[in-house]
Structure formats: structure tokens, C-alpha cells
């Protein structure tokens, strides 16, 4: 978990989005990583655990991880609305960061199943009301 937090800090602090708020609960990050494991496994099927080094050099995986985080922030807002506008900005910040680094727009309200692999993602857009199944 700490390794992922460090990676997220590097991405956010070195981005033009560095003034945005990226704070969210560890539980959201942990759940995002759990779901992301199946996306990662589509690229690296022999890795038993997620290798942060591999993520850094696969922009499609960066976009997927950041989508998973923004999606979970979005879903936590729908369930409890405890974060109000605070977390509303966070989901947008992660979504923008995914678009900036990965060059893929995966809107947080799109319902993307586990195990998505995007081979040539530059310019790919998955809109707000899209639904994509598992292992695609």
C-alpha cells in the first residue's frame, strides 16, 4: 500500500494537476488495487503480485489504476455522500490525471468490469454511461 501511495504522490506532484486535491481513504485505494489486480494480470500473467515498476512503464495500466481509484471515490459518494464536494473534486482529479498520463479517458461513472486490457490506448475514450464486461 505504501508503495502505491508513493507512486501516486510522484504522479500528482509532477503533474500540472499538482494543486488539485487527491486525498482519499486508504480503504478506497486498497479496494481499487484489489480490482486493479485483474487488469494488471492481463498484462503480466506470471506476476503473482503487482510490480510497481511495470505499472510505471505501461501507460494503459496507469490509466486503469487511476480509473479504479476515481471510480471507487465516485461509488463511495453515491453510497454515503459523506465526502460531499470534497471527494467530488478528488474523483475528477484522479480522472484528469489518468487522461494526462495515460492519454486515455475512462470516465469514473463508466462501469468497467475487472480484467480490461487496452493495447493501444492513446485517444481512447470510454464515456460516462458505458458498460464494459469482465476480461475484455
Q: Largest beta sheet, briefly?
A: 2 strands, parallel
Beta-strand percent range: 5-15%
> What order do the strands of the largest sheet run in, or round the barrel if closed?
1-3
Number of helices: 5
Cα distance spanning the termini? 27 Å
Shape estimate: globular
Instruction: Compute the average pLDDT.
Output: 89
User: Count of DSSP E strands?
Assistant: 4
Structural account:
It is a single chain. With 136 residues, the protein is mainly α. Helices cover 56% and strands 6% of the residues. The protein has five helices and four strands. It has helices at residues 2-13, 26-43, 52-56, 59-80, 84-102, and strands spanning 105-106, 111-112, 125-126, 131-132. The strands form two sheets. Strands 1-3 form a two-stranded parallel ribbon. A two-stranded parallel sheet has the order 2-4. Helix 2 (26-43) packs antiparallel against helix 4 (59-80) and helix 4 packs antiparallel against helix 5 (84-102). It is globular, with a radius of gyration of 14 Å. The relative contact order is 0.16. The model has no long low-confidence stretch (mean pLDDT 89).
Amino acid at each position: 500500500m505504501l508503495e502505491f501511495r508513493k507512486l501516486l504522490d510522484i504522479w500528482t506532484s509532477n503533474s500540472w494537476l499538482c494543486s488539485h486535491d487527491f486525498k482519499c481513504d486508504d480503504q478506497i485505494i486498497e479496494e481499487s488495487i484489489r480490482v486493479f489486480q485483474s487488469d494488471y494480470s492481463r498484462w503480466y500473467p506470471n506476476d503473482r503480485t503487482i510490480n510497481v515498476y511495470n505499472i510505471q512503464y505501461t501507460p494503459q495500466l496507469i490509466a486503469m489504476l487511476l480509473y479504479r481509484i476515481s471510480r471507487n471515490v465516485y461509488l463511495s459518494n453515491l453510497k454515503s455522500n459523506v465526502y460531499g464536494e470534497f471527494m467530488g473534486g478528488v474523483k475528477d482529479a484522479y480522472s484528469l490525471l489518468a487522461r494526462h498520463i495515460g492519454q486515455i479517458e475512462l470516465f469514473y461513472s463508466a462501469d468497467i468490469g475487472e480484467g480490461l486490457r487496452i493495447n493501444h490506448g492513446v485517444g481512447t475514450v470510454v464515456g460516462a454511461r458505458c458498460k464494459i464486461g469482465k476480461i475484455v
